[in-house]
Amino acid sequence: MTPQLEPYFKQVDGLADHFIERLRQAVAIPSVSAEDERRPDVVKMGHFLHEELKKLGVETELRPLGKQPHKEHLDLPPIVLGRYGNDKNKRTILVYGHYDVQPANKEDGWNTEPFELSIDDKGRMFGRGSTDDKGPVLGWLNAIEAHQKAGLDFPVNLLMCFEGMEEHGSEGLDDFIMEEAQKYFKTADAVCISDNYWLGTEKPCLTYGLRGVQYYSLEVSGPGQDLHSGVFGGTAHEPMTDLAKIMSSLVDVDGTIKIKGIAEQVAPVTDEEKGLYKDIAFTMDNLYESLGSKTGIFPDKERTLMGRWRYPSLSLHGIEGAYSAPGAKTVIPAKVIGKFSIRTVPNLDIDEVNKCVEEHVNAEFAKLNSKNTCKVFCQHAGKWWVASPKHWNFTAAAKAVESVFKVKPDLTREGGSIPVTLTFEQATGKNVLLLPMGSSTDAAHSTNEKLDRYNYIEGIKLLGSYLHYVAEEPMNN
Amino acid sequence: MTPQLEPYFKQVDGLADHFIERLRQAVAIPSVSAEDERRPDVVKMGHFLHEELKKLGVETELRPLGKQPHKEHLDLPPIVLGRYGNDKNKRTILVYGHYDVQPANKEDGWNTEPFELSIDDKGRMFGRGSTDDKGPVLGWLNAIEAHQKAGLDFPVNLLMCFEGMEEHGSEGLDDFIMEEAQKYFKTADAVCISDNYWLGTEKPCLTYGLRGVQYYSLEVSGPGQDLHSGVFGGTAHEPMTDLAKIMSSLVDVDGTIKIKGIAEQVAPVTDEEKGLYKDIAFTMDNLYESLGSKTGIFPDKERTLMGRWRYPSLSLHGIEGAYSAPGAKTVIPAKVIGKFSIRTVPNLDIDEVNKCVEEHVNAEFAKLNSKNTCKVFCQHAGKWWVASPKHWNFTAAAKAVESVFKVKPDLTREGGSIPVTLTFEQATGKNVLLLPMGSSTDAAHSTNEKLDRYNYIEGIKLLGSYLHYVAEEPMNN
Predict the structure, then answer these.
(1) Where does this protein hold Mn(2+) 1 (chains A, B) (predicted)?
(2) A261-299, pLDDT tens digit by residue?
(3) Is B330 annotated as a binding residue?
(4) Angstroms from A403 CA to nearest CA on chain B
(5) Are the Cβ atoms of A318 and B319 closer than 8 angstroms?
(6) Gap between the Cα atoms of A28 and A34, Å rounded
(7) Domain B6-210+385-472, CATH class in plain words
């Protein structure tokens, strides 16, 4: 049965200004989780959400997470939990979002006050957290309110989990999810996360895959302390020379990873997969626009999307311990730590990748015949994630997109990592869907972050519509 | 005629405590030239010297250098000039030193207050500037005073030039020296600089050569702004990848410079030169001690000394624009600037070296087939310097060493650069001698800088003795 969504959509349109006002109030709370002195604002934002949920009749609670590790004077902000409906005849959808934001200062290059929602004549709503992730989080609340005001039955039971530390490592979240998997989250039939972006600006997408990441420190040391290059240059093995050699051996200019054993682990491209890329709403101009240059590796969009989504990549990030300031300093650094990371894809195994990296580095260093000391270690590792886009969770979302935007969504993966996705999948054993609200130009994490009015209001329709289709989709796994 | 130095030496010994007190007063003035807020202390130190010189009857003046370039609110500290004696029948020696010091904070790891002279039971006098360069500068004043108190005729006319910006680029000094070459410095017959160190701890040396330095910035850029490695890794040419390749192509782990055309310019080793190294008071253990490790390139001292003094070297210093903090950041830096420098020796030509570097970098970058942009440029260049150690200025100093230390000095070169040396040589056209007072363990520029009481007091004897022998040496060029 196709849901009758017109009354809901009309209600959302009618409440648009009210929903924007709610976003304005949320953006006005500078809930920057990375700045200790802003912690009270993060907590304030958690309480704001808690109060808004209560007003909507949602059963809600604030769950403390204890002290922040390594900063015992700081309480972690609470997890805001919510339960709306508890009808055994309805499906239960668990949604996740975060109410903290990235740092922002007007002086960094913002055209408007970052913590005041400013709407320009193109309907762009500028403000820190507008798109990441206050807009999407409020989207769920707004969907509930529109149903209430339209007198419509809410189609599912909704479980909500909103955290306040996402922009600062999601401290405490993984343990909490694991702990509540068979308690608060026990009844969830599927999970939906709205914390990513459309691939472009025109066409919605559903995201079913993420790359993992393994981040390495490659340390070369020799002298007991930094040396003067005049006094010691030409007489001592220099750690920077060794490090440059090893870093340059990891990856080629065309992105090919030179570490033996990585490419062999990558899942082969199937014929079915090959056909997926050409229809994705993405052009090389989209790439060039987001790069700010024409320095792409591949001439075509298919290979570019595969490079982003389904092949591993290796990036050199920088060097700790070497001279990094402007100007000139004639130092021979005594200990340098190269930083690089590998984006991983199916079927790369975390331990196997670590082993390949260690073997490569050790072999390359041995070739050098240096008297310095070299070691490499994995700072942190997060696994790749790929869900089945054929699951009812996805087919429901696809129908919802069509009902709102009159277009079939692209099925996309992302090159980056959202570790909580995998945590929810592993903790609940349920299908997880990434259902973005904002577009690729929203500048999350950057200056002048924004959410388009169009994406916000239509996004609220999308979230509600998705829940209706979820209620109707046949069980398929 | 051999000078009769015993009365002078006795007088120096008798005044030792007084001379140490003078050094204590000087160290107590934190004349840190690199820190804007300390500028008044640098000026105060200049005035202290001026007053001390006046008390000794030296004709002295403070010469303003105007505003500091790029910091127009700051006056440069004055040059302290002094003239002691103006007898046409005597030789005139121009001495240079500096009265500013490196930054120092107790918290950096000093065992004592850096601006309080602290003498331990081994006679080590700890304090910022003790050896670099307040001890040597006061050495000249002390030599004058000891002559006066012993009722001895001063053997030469002494011209003094003490600057207050040596540790911060000697701003304004070169122009000043060029300007005064035919004025204040016109009558100088030779130049003596005491601002370097013995090669070890036991045996004095005279220094007749320095390497030059050419410092490069190697810039690779591509994207319009820093990128997220998850989103763009594997799809765009990364400047860090290109930079690592080029940096690793510049030099081998054993110090061999891989830039075509550099080795070809190095003056061949003569048979006479070959014999010089084996007698130098230097051991591989000296190297290992100063390195704080056994990571020397060569097993023998001869090749090590040649690597330091007479062969060029290339050091990679670091990268500007890449991630350099502890921890992890998954950034693809948009523009990275590799810093490296070449220590130069006879007969490397500044322009020719620049040309070789440019050609090498351009060729290596072309090989990469990258869409990024690469450029290299020389930030600053200072020429190598080699003087004749057979000049009377050196033979006088050698005899002075024998008279004080009962040993022939080593004739050494240095791997580092003291640009003012070449400036004085070029401006005056006279022979320049580097006559160190401190030893290799003095930790100039580091924490716990010190000057041994022995080196200070015997050094005062050395400076005075040197002037006596200068008065006696036959003209040889």
Answers:
(1) 132, 167, 445
(2) 999 999 999 998 988 999 999 999 999 998 999 999 999
(3) yes
(4) 29
(5) yes
(6) 17
(7) alpha beta
Residues 6 or more apart whose CB falls under 8 angstroms from that of B76 comprise B64, B65, B66, B67, B68, B164, B165, B171, B172
| Any B CB within 8 A of A275 CB | no
Do domains B6-210+385-472 and B212-266+311-382 share one topology? The answer is no
Distance of CA A34 to the CA centre of its chain: 16
Read off the tokens for B338: 């590799």
Alpha-carbon distances, residue B370 vs A137, B218, B220, B222, B374 (angstroms): 42, 15, 10, 10, 9
How many CB atoms are closer than 10 A to CB A293?
A: 21
* Longest alpha-carbon distance in chain B: 82
> How much helix, strand and coil, in percent to the nearest 5, is found in chain A?
35, 25, 40
A52, A133, A145, A166: the catalytic one is A166
Q: Is A360 annotated as a binding residue?
A: no
Across-strand partners of A340? Answer: A216, A316
Cβ partners under 8 Å of residue A194, min gap 6 = A95, A97, A133, A136, A137, A139, A140, A434, A435, A436, A437, A459, A463
Are B319 and A316 inside 8 Å of each other by CB? no
Q: Which of residues 32-91 of A touch B (CB under 8 A)?
A: none
Distance CA A391, CA B342 (A): 62
Question: How far apart are the C-alpha atoms of A283 and A304, rounded to whole Å?
Answer: 10
CA nearest to B17, candidates B116, B111, B119: B119
Alpha carbon A313 to its chain centroid, in Å, reads 17
The residues in B 352-411 lying below 8 A from A, measured between CB atoms, are 368-372, 379-380
d(CA A183, CA A427): 11
Half-sphere exposure of A319 (CA within 13 A, CB side): 34
DSSP B182-226: TTTTTT-SEEEE--SB-SSSSS-EEEEEE-EEEEEEEEEE-SSS-
Considering just the CA atoms, what is the radius of gyration of chain B in Å? 24
One-letter amino acid identity for A384? W
Q: Which two tokens stand for residue B472?
A: 């006696």
**Alpha-helix residue ranges (DSSP H) falling in A125-236:** 135-150, 173-180, 229-232
**For residues A23-50, average pLDDT:** 97
**Residue A292 with chain B: CB contacts under 8 Å:** 223-225, 334
Choose the weakest-confidence range: B202-206, B317-321, B443-447.
B443-447
Q: Are B382 and B422 in contact (CB under 8 A)?
A: yes
Q: Touching check for B166 and chain A: CB below 8 Å?
A: no
Amino acid of residue A168: H
The Cα A254–Cα A269 span in angstroms is 20
| Token couple for A346 | 């199916």
Angle between helices A135-150 and A453-472 (to 10 degrees): 60
- CATH number, span A212-266+311-382: 3.30.70.360
Between positions 409 and 438 of B, the ones with CB within 8 A of A are 414-417
> Is A264 assigned a catalytic role?
no
**Distance separating alpha carbons of residues A411 and A272, to the nearest angstrom:** 13
Pairing assessment for the beta strands B335-344 and B212-221 based on DSSP bridges: antiparallel
Dihedral through CA B111, CA B113, CA B114, CA B118, nearest 10? -80
- Judge whether residue B432 has pLDDT over 70: yes
Q: Write down the domain spans for chain B.
A: 6-210+385-472, 212-266+311-382
- CATH class name, domain A6-210+384-472: alpha beta
* Model confidence at A1: pLDDT above 70: no
Q: What is the DSSP string of A270-300?
A: PHHHHTTSTTSS--HHHHHHHHTSS-BS-SS
Amino acid at B244: A
CA distances from B337 to A54, A88, A435, B288 (A): 54, 62, 40, 32
Average pLDDT of the residues of chain A: 96
